[in-house]
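ARCHIVE CARD
Drawer: 12
Card no.: 0347
Subject: one protein chain, sequence and derived structure
Cross-reference: see card 0346
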Amino acid sequence: MIVRLSEVTKTYRKGVKALDDLSYEVREGEIFGLLGPNGSGKTTSINCLLGLLKFESGTIEIFDQPMGPDRYDLKAQIGVIPQNVAVFYELTVEENIDYFCGLYVKDKQRRKKLVDEAIEFVALGDYRKVHPNKLSGGLQRRLNIACGIAHKPRLIIFDEPTVGVDPQSRNNILEGIKRLNQEGATIIYTSHYMEEVEQLCDYIIIMDKGKVIAHGNKEALKNLIMLGETIEIKVEEPNDEYLKPIRELPNVLEANFKDHTLIVKSGKGATNIPNVLAILNEHRVKYGTLYSSLPTLNDVFLELTGKGLRD
């Protein structure tokens, strides 16, 4: 097991429990999604497993060994890519990567090879001698990643790596994370973008109030909620006259208008599209585009926590 937290409790001032007997495990070779609204304990749990915070009770093991503030042998095998870009703006791209790699690799010849590999990995070869303040936001993020992975860590922690970047840079970062995993790194990934988590993660836990409230792969998590199909139909005239019979259909959980879009949410089971269209036709409703979707990870999150990720 790469990471094991067992019944970890961390209490801040005024008796607020950031972690409440928290337990979870990260298996070797997986991309592990760590989700939760702000204040749920995600960052506290990461800081505890990195040995940056003391906790009152429980145990933390990294690579099957007890983790602690002075376990530099374990920390040398971990890479951390923080949410905020953390580089030295007075150093060039190459100098930054060399500095962070040098915290773990003292041999200059080997370090040069690792720095070159990291620059190639994040495609910053044309920017070796450029200072970070001359880079775009997306390129700065890629530099941030290179600084965290140059020493070839076994475990890499990504905290919101795509916040504020353009779509092209975002795709580049996500593809890079997949490649790191394919090359053998175990990944812990936190994000407010649910589609990223669905795309990347093999196993996911959802935290709230310092506890794990759900865990499993994305399909297992979706099976935890009642929601089945969601139907969205553009209508010319929203009217309660036909909304009432739609709400009375079997298996319909709710039906409402959002501007000129009729939104019908059904429970698990057969589709309600023919029944909804029959009612619209009966009431001579003019309608246009119809869109049907199955539950997403975001639906699961909202139903289980009752709040959005940025609450």
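Annotation on reverse: The mean pLDDT is 92. The chain has two domains: 3-222, 226-294.
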